[in-house]
Structure prediction request, 339 residues.
Amino acid sequence: MTRVLVTGGAGYIGTHTCVELLARGYEPVVVDNFVNSTPEAIRRVSRLTGRTLTWYEGDVRDTGKMAHLLGKHECRAVIHFAGLKAVGESTERPLDYYSVNTLGTHALASAMLDAGVHQLVFSSSATVYGEPVFLPYTESHPLQPTSPYGRSKQAAEMLLNDIAASGAMRDIAILRYFNPIGAHPSGLIGEDPNDVPNNLMPYVAQVAVGRRPFLNIWGNDYDTPDGTGVRDYLHVVDLARAHVLALDRFRHTHGPVTLNLGTGHGSSVLDVVKAFEEASGRRIPLRFEPRRAGDIAAFWADPSLAEETLGWKAENTLEDMCRDQWTWQSRNPLGYEAA
Ligand SMILES: NC(=O)c1ccc[n+]([C@@H]2O[C@H](COP(=O)([O-])OP(=O)(O)OC[C@H]3O[C@@H](n4cnc5c(N)ncnc54)[C@H](O)[C@@H]3O)[C@@H](O)[C@H]2O)c1
Prediction:
């Protein structure tokens, strides 16, 4: 059994990835400080998979603890999800974002080298690209992130590429996620932000169950087909699968790689709302607000390198994403809290 340390493994993408890891013969060891999650999420993964998960409360910036866990469990690889991810908040708390996202990656990489672990899959983001020079974004698109969040991820990427170039760590997969939404079809795990959701889909879902009165749409005068922002939404289970494939690849191919993970198609805010209304049978009241500073009108991925490199392709449609999001939210209207 190949053990993998999963930082931030109690979070949204982390829990879904633990399910896929277990299904493919890997054994996740989770470490999370629960700043945006709860141990109940890990218990749900156990319920869903019928397997007991090993987990620890800990901060990824604690190099000693990370090195200890890597050694204790003889981990062969790390998947590094732990991070702060709210673009707006990052402009108010840049120190925290650089501390967790950039210095946390530094601390973890140090722990890996101390423990002799040389395989890392890192959660990066499409926000590293910034204002599009061309679309779809390919991995060689210039990097001009427009927020401290994006820059904290870019800085972590630079650090990891330099470590790879030095020869100290051979196998690094930097995965640039577009916009993951949806949930595991079981309805047992899903996105459950501790605060007011920053992303569209959890907000829409919370409006649908009556936790919030309406959805604010920031800008309907963009140069897009219906005036609202366009993003490349992908199903979180498709995204989770890519992490397992990245680990599989390390078995036979070495060296660093940076890959976009998206569907290659953009959907507008109104497309998502309409698809969600159809999936849920609920109406989503809308309120149009002015554009938010720093928001980009439209972007989507060229995911062809991920297909070439990992044999990965997003399979689920927007309808699938909305159906599964609704299953999760309608069965867990208060998220994990009620449990
Ligand atoms: N969800 C998205 O839209 C998206 C898009 C692009 C990139 N990402 C990146 O993917 C990763 C996972 O995102 P997610 O959506 O699952 O977010 P999430 O907030 O659900 O998960 C992150 C997890 O990391 C934990 N964490 C935060 N700081 C920590 C620390 N210092 N030490 C240990 N644990 C810590 C949180 O408690 C949480 O469980 C993040 O790095 C995020 O930046 C997410």
Q: What stands out?
A: The radius of gyration is 19 Å. Residues 2-183+233-262 form a domain with the Rossmann fold fold (CATH 3.40.50.720). The pocket of nicotinamide-adenine-dinucleotide is lined by residues 7-8, 10-14, 32-37, 59-61, 81-85, 100, 104, 123, 125, 177, 179-180, 199 (CB under 6 Å).
